[in-house]
Amino acid sequence: LTIRFVLAMRMSLMIQSVRLLRCTASCFLHGVRCASTKTATARLQVNDPQFLTKEQVASFHREGFLVLPNFTSSEGCTEMENACQDVIQKYNPDKDYTTTFSTTEQKANDYFLSSGDKVRYFFEEGAVDEKGHIIVDVGRAFNKIGHALHWQNPTFNKFTFNDTIKKIAHDVGLVSPVIPQSMFIFKQPGIGGEVVPHQDSTFLYTDPLSCVGFWTPLEDCTLENGCLQAIPGSHLSGLHNNRRMIRSNTSTEGVEFTNPPQEYDNDDDFVPLVIPKGSLVLIHGEVVHKSSPNKSGQSRHAYVFHMVEGNAEYDNLNWLQTDTSFPPL
């Protein structure tokens, strides 16, 4: 038994060494830092809680996510829904591209890459034909609207920049957070696309890692309409495969990934977050999460924004860049 254990340990070390060599080589080729050469878990410090309980803070750091039911009132959810409808009314097909968005086949154009300080419209793949014509009712055609609702829209600004959010950010360990992006996600009935397993720090990389997502469903989330699902504790091993999405001058897609995705083949590892509207889900930047396609007749609207530590180095290879500094919380 002892011999088998020693052999197993040697084999495990060999596998880890090969992974590290691959990761380092890939990082060298792409000119990015290799997070795997650092401590796997970076950054969020321990503060005395101002809003969350100590048990909730411990759960967030242990599981990588935390659900706060009844965080936003029904009236608050309706207010954000109405604000989104006002934004939709401003959509101009003569000025705005019918750009589709998909996490299964990541593509980017200037309309997408320059959206960091603007409000831009992105469509479901099943809502636009090959010529870019919208083939469903325009109200049900959007995948998301982003990425600066928190900057440009007074209603979403109010629900993003407030004292309670500041206290929660402090409680999970952020010191001087800034907010790079926000989105209204539609998850349309019948055509709402799959969001593949991912880590948010893949897209919003800082040194040290510091991304935290604030996700509020404006409608009830069910298995049928594509609720969030997460792997508890998956953040504890850092940024898997050191996978990052960066801007690219050579790729025809405008962006590229530094490494292939890690496979998450066991669906039983994912915990479905079947939660009511108005909840707040805190999402650690390295926790693996996903959502299935919406095959139901009910949409699953949500408002989400992401914070990073203002004292951390926001990488200039990240896909999302703006001419001005991100707004501080």
Q: Would you summarize the structure shown here?
A:
With 329 residues, the chain is an alpha+beta fold. The protein has helices at residues 2-30, 54-63, 74-89, 110-113, 149-152, 154-160, 163-171; strands spanning 65-68, 99-100, 119-123, 142-147, 177-185, 195-198, 206-207, 212-217, 228-230, 245-247, 255-257, 271-272, 280-284, 289-291, 302-309, 313-314.
Description of the structure:
With 329 residues, the chain is of the alpha+beta class. The chain has 7 helices and 16 strands. Helix content is 24%, strand content 20%. The strands form 4 sheets. It has an 8-stranded mixed sheet with strand order 1-13-8-15-5-4-3-2. Strand 2, helix 4 and strand 3 form a beta-alpha-beta unit. The longest helix has 29 residues. The termini are far apart.
Features:
single chain; 329 residues; alpha+beta; eight-stranded mixed beta sheet; four-stranded antiparallel beta sheet; 7 helices; 16 strands; 20% strand; globular; disordered N terminus
Question: What level of helicity do the residues show?
Answer: 10-25%
**Counting H and I runs of at least 4 residues, what is the number of helices?**
7
Number of strands: 16
Name the structural class. Answer: alpha+beta
Poorly predicted regions are 1-41
Question: Mean of the pLDDT scores?
Answer: 85
Morphology call = globular
Strands across the major sheet, in which order? Answer: 1-13-8-15-5-4-3-2
Topology:
Elements: H1 2-30, H2 54-63, E1 65-68, H3 74-89, E2 99-100, H4 110-113, E3 119-123, E4 142-147, H5 149-152, H6 154-160, H7 163-171, E5 177-185, E6 195-198, E7 206-207, E8 212-217, E9 228-230, E10 245-247, E11 255-257, E12 271-272, E13 280-284, E14 289-291, E15 302-309, E16 313-314
Parallel strand pairs: 2-3
Antiparallel strand pairs: 1-13, 3-4, 4-5, 5-15, 6-14, 7-16, 8-13, 8-15, 9-12, 9-14, 10-11
